């Protein structure tokens, strides 16, 4: 089932620190391919920490790993992910005459790739 | 144990705060301690040591500096529509040479500003910027608003060094003399540092800012504003009143405004609000700039071309047009046929069509680290890290220039040195 969300990519401390260790290193790649979701949305969809999902926008798709956000951090229907290769794959190329693609507030659908082993 | 050195008053170039009070402990050409640095600064200083990489790669194979410079110059001279891009993580001195190269080969020169606060640059031209230095904020601000910005994670010392915590001339009790407001879609790690947190609906910044403009001007609004923005009318009224009655207010805005649909219009709304407030009090507005010298890139490109980013020099004189001459567009539309990329990583940060086109054209890149962009380059130069291995000038996010104090030498050339060699070689090729 495809669930609609609004994705907000942004900076995190860990993205900033692992960036300095190297963009091709595991820690950076893990940080920038982890998507945070509202805990109520996680419960509603049966999403557990570590579950793989596919995010699709009108412009591309990417796989990510879900982590429930802290209660109150994210409103329902909103996802957060650290900037990086994964979030960039979901951006469109059109900059609407500004030079800047829509890089935050991206409409995406979320698809659970495989259920977690109990 | 090797030689131990202490470098005092070093400058951190990781983010736009450009904190210049670092005390670095250097052992065997490696920084082992960075006193006063935040978590990001520590990661910056402690992870930029000398890596064992070739000084240059041509088509993925190790090459001498001279061979790589020759090939790089040839690519740029033969191109019909090249782009020069990046520049926000290098010195102003290197940025000047990059613009000179763009001028020589008739390139579009663009910086990472265009995918950061480029829309803010457009808005500054449309509305104007009521600006001040961070020193003035430190000494005077009694109302500090962060909008679409998460300084606790992106600029960890902004609050403690410049904006909310320090004691200043007219705010002698520091934090106790200030009201701090955070407006964001997420309750971020910055929220606990604020007195007031307003959680706004995604993509509703323009509407909330315009509502505040109306309230500041005394226009009555109904409760529909909450349904639209997610923020109760009473909270907006309270914020408008605080803005009008503070002695010195400042609004720091992040990419929550410039990267979200509406972009320059969101920023124009914020700039107009700050301008309006000066009818009642002193009120300022500043963008939270990301990269260490992205503000320098804006300044240098402006000195040399008259415009801050997205400038075409293809006709022999500068033309500014975001959307036409900005790199995200020239690549995604398949127009650029070569690129010079300095200290940035479009292969990881650009849209898929832009990346695919970049992979098809010959390009050269200068970077101290291996990145996805380095891996696909026709010519890749390993360069010294600015601020750690090289001196020079950078600009803090409030347009204050600061000198760099390098900690230890690098066997690799600086960006400026490589760019000067490419520029000389291009000149020789064009003259002969």
Brief characterization of the structure:
By secondary structure, chain A is of the alpha/beta class. Chain A is built from four helices and six strands; from the N terminus they run E-H-H-E-H-E-E-E-H-E. Chain A is globular, with a radius of gyration of 14 Å.
End-to-end distance of chain B, in Å? 53 Å
- Largest protein-protein interface: A-B, 43 and 60 residues
CATH class of the largest domain in chain B: Alpha Beta
CATH topology of the largest domain in chain B: Rossmann fold
Describe what this molecule looks like in 3D:
The complex is a heterodimer of chains A (118) and B (432). Chain A has 118 residues and is an alpha/beta fold. Helix content of chain A is 22%, strand content 32%. Chain A has helices at 13-21, 26-31, 39-45, 85-88; strands at residues 2-10, 34-37, 52-56, 61-68, 78-82, 106-112. Chain A has a six-stranded mixed beta barrel. Chain B has 432 residues and is α/β, with parallel strands linked by helices. Chain B has three domains: 4-45, no CATH class; 52-116 and 292-402 and 410-431, Rossmann fold; 118-287, Dimethylsulfoxide Reductase, domain 2 (3-Layer(aba) Sandwich). Chain B contains 18 helices and 19 strands. Chain B has helices at 39-47, 65-78, 92-105, 118-127, 134-140, 151-154, 158-163, 205-216, 224-229, 233-245, 255-258, 264-277, 294-305, 327-332, 346-349, 352-360, 372-375, 415-431, and strands at 4-10, 22-27, 31-35, 56-58, 61-63, 82-86, 108-111, 143-147, 179-184, 196-199, 248-253, 282-287, 311-312, 319-320, 338-342, 363-367, 379-382, 393-395, 401-403. In chain B, helix 4 crosses helix 12. The model of chain B has no long low-confidence stretch (mean pLDDT 97). At the A-B interface, strand 1 and helix 1 of A face helix 1, helix 4, helix 11, helix 14 and helix 16 of B.
């Amino acid at each position: 089932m495809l669930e609609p969300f609004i994705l907000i990519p942004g900076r995190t401390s860990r993205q900033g620190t692992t960036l300095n260790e190297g963009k091709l290193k595991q820690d950076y790649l893990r940080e920038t391919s982890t998507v945070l979701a509202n805990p109520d949305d996680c419960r509603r969809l049966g999403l557990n920490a570590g579950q793989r999902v596919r995010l699709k926008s009108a412009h591309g798709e990417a796989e990510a790993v879900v982590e429930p956000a802290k209660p109150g951090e994210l409103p329902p229907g909103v996802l957060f992910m650290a900037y990086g290769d994964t979030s960039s794959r979901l951006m469109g190329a059109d900059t609407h005459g500004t030079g800047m693609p829509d890089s935050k507030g991206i409409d995406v659908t979320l698809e659970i790739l495989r259920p977690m082993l109990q | 144990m090797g030689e131990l050195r202490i470098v005092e008053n070093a400058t951190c170039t990781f983010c736009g705060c450009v904190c210049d009070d670092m005390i670095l402990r250097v052992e065997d050409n490696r920084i082992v301690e960075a006193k006063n640095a935040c978590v990001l600064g520590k990661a910056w200083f402690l992870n930029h040591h000398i890596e064992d990489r070739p000084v240059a790669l041509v088509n993925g194979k190790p090459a001498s500096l001279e061979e790589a410079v020759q090939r790089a110059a040839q690519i740029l001279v033969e191109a019909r529509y090249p782009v020069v891009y990046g520049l926000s993580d290098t010195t102003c001195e290197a940025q000047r040479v990059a613009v000179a190269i763009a001028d020589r080969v008739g390139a579009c020169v663009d910086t990472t500003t265009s995918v950061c606060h480029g829309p803010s640059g457009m808005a500054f031209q449309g509305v104007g910027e009521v600006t001040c230095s961070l020193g003035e904020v430190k000494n005077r601000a009694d109302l500090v608003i962060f909008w679409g910005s998460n300084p606790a994670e992106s600029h960890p010392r902004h609050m403690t060094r410049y904006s909310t915590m320090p004691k200043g001339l007219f705010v002698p009790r520091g934090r106790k003399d200030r009201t701090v407001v955070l407006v964001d879609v997420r309750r971020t790690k910055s929220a606990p540092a604020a007195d007031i947190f307003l959680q706004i609906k995604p993509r509703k910044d323009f509407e909330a800012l315009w509502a505040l403009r109306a309230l500041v001007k005394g226009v009555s609004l109904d409760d529909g504003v909450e349904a639209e923005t997610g923020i109760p009318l009473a909270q907006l009224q309270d914020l408008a009143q605080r803005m009008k009655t503070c002695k010195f207010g400042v609004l720091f805005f992040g990419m929550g405004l410039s990267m979200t649909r509406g972009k320059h219009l969101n920023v124009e709304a914020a700039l107009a609000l700050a301008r309006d407030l000066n009818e009642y009090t002193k009120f300022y507005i500043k963008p939270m700039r990301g990269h260490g010298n992205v503000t320098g890139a804006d300044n240098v490109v402006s000195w040399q071309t008259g415009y801050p980013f997205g400038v075409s020099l293809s006709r022999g004189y500068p033309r500014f047009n975001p959307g036409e001459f900005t790199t995200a567009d020239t690549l995604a539309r398949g127009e650029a046929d070569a690129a010079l990329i300095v200290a940035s990583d479009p292969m990881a940060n650009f849209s898929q069509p832009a990346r695919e086109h970049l992979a098809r054209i010959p390009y050269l890149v200068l970077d101290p680290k291996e990145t996805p962009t380095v891996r696909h380059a026709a010519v890749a130069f390993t360069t010294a890290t600015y601020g750690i291995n090289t001196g020079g000038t950078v600009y803090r996010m409030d347009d204050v220039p600061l000198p760099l104090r390098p900690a230890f030498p690098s066997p690799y050339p600086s960006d400026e040195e490589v760019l000067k060699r490419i520029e000389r070689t291009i000149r020789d090729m064009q003259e002969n």
